[in-house]
Amino acid sequence: MDIIPHLLDGFLVALQPMNLFLVIIGCAVGLFIGAMPGLGSVNGVAILLPVTFIVPPTSAIIFLAAIYYGAMYGGAISSIMLGIPGASTAVATTFDGRPMAVQGRADVALVAAATASFVGGTISVILFTAFAPPLAHVALAFGAEEEFALMMLAFSTFVGLGGDDIPKTIFSILIGLVLSAVGLDIISGAPRLIFGDLPGFYHGINFLVLAIGIYGIGEILWTIESSRGEVEVSQAVVSVHRIFAALKEMGGCIKTMIMGSLVGYFVGLLPAAGATPGSIMAYGFAKTMSRNPDSFGKGNIQGVAAPESANNAASTGSMLPMLTLGIPGSPTTAILLGGMVIWGLEPGPRLFVDQTEFVWGLIASLYVANLFALVLNVAFIPVFIWVLKLPFTILAPVIFVLCVVGGYAPTQDMHDVWLMLLFGVVGYLLRKLDYPMAPMVLAIVLGPLAESSLRQSLLLSRGSMTVFFERPISGPIMGIALLLFLLPVFKAFQRKRAAGKASEGGSHG
């Protein structure tokens, strides 16, 4: 088998002293870039891309890939510790990671995130190594119809299998879809929902602005109100014994981590999908598979394991179409693709033949980066816990400043900062009225993808909806999605029928 000798050659490249040094530095830098709200892997790789021109192309891609990997790990840190997603890929981690931190289980949540990230990274790199060319062809078989069917499946899991109030869940999804439509029409270019011709709305609503507002500012307002001004300092502790106990607890999450890894990897393969939809879809599927779905959003360790395994798997998956087809699978890989072109490397099927040292050196470095990111993450847990022990009077202003910086950084527009503050108030009110946040976040992430694939499919089929059911892949997926959408109706009908029989039995008695 050709793969093993190539991989061993790759390890000889990845373990060269300079490359190994770049992997460790890249993982450490990525960890802190990922933990800083608003930065994320896209900005980190873009900022550090010019630095790579002083080293050979193989070393350069190894360094940037290590930053990407480290940022995927790091995004969970601020999601768990402060309730602010470090990047869009870590939003789903906030749903259960933050409640765990509030309950004094921040160390367990951080160990869970690190372990799940490692599992997701490992499974995805193994799949990458073993099935690179065939999987690239499978991803190409996914047209607009299949992508839309996949989006519908993601929405339907929240409606059909969520433990939340169904009307409130649907309302949350619809609000998210409306917000995702703000900006310019993708086909005609006409402005939509720009609220009195405000120029800031022309670029649409940035997903991170919504996420940081709802989970960062909203969390501060909720904490201040619920504590009546007397906020307790989190009693989070960390010890070697507790870390091993957390690792033992992760034994019950093996199925969830494998599922998250596979979902994330496959979504990562799809061009332009990326890790954010993969992590949120994995969270939905974990809730679906759980025997106790009501515990999600209240500090369930599986709610951390699923998105973290998925976003790391998706980050590896998104590199596959970049290398084999020259199509970036995520915004970060689009920057890596630009770097490859600058270094004089032409992505595509010939890359595996013409540049074997480069390709296999990169693949081997992913194994190494995955291991070092895990070690660094666990080693820094005491530092992250120390942050939690700060008094709320110090922590709240720090969180607020990080939120403002995170809201301003992506577009450098003050409009987004005001919008973020508004979303903070909206997030607080929705939480007070017991509306689930996750479906709205899912809708604003998947909304643009769903709209473009829906309109593309309808243009090709001249307006016929049957196109989604006629194709061999999209048909079954749409069928399952429709069944899940109708499941609450069947459940309500069964309950009504059972109640009717019970009342009849009582009247006969």
Write the layout of secondary structure elements.
Blueprint: H1 3-14, H2 17-35, H3 40-48, H4 57-81, H5 91-102, H6 106-141, H7 144-161, H8 166-180, E1 183-184, E2 191-192, H9 207-227, H10 240-249, H11 254-269, H12 275-289, H13 302-317, H14 319-325, H15 331-342, H16 351-354, H17 356-379, H18 381-388, H19 392-408, H20 414-432, H21 438-460, H22 467-470, H23 474-508
Antiparallel strand pairs: 1-2
Q: What does this molecule look like?
A:
This protein is mainly alpha-helical and 509 residues long. The chain has one domain. It is 74% helix and 1% strand. It is built from 23 helices and 2 strands. Strands 1-2 form a two-stranded antiparallel ribbon. A hairpin with a 6-residue loop joins strand 1 (183-184) and strand 2. Helix 1 (3-14) packs across helix 17, helix 4 runs antiparallel to helix 15 and helix 5 (91-102) packs antiparallel against helix 6 (106-141). The protein starts with a helix and ends with a helix.
List keywords for this structure.
509 residues; mainly alpha; two-stranded antiparallel sheet; 23 helices
Summarize the structure.
With 509 residues, the chain is mainly alpha-helical. The protein contains 23 helices and 2 strands.
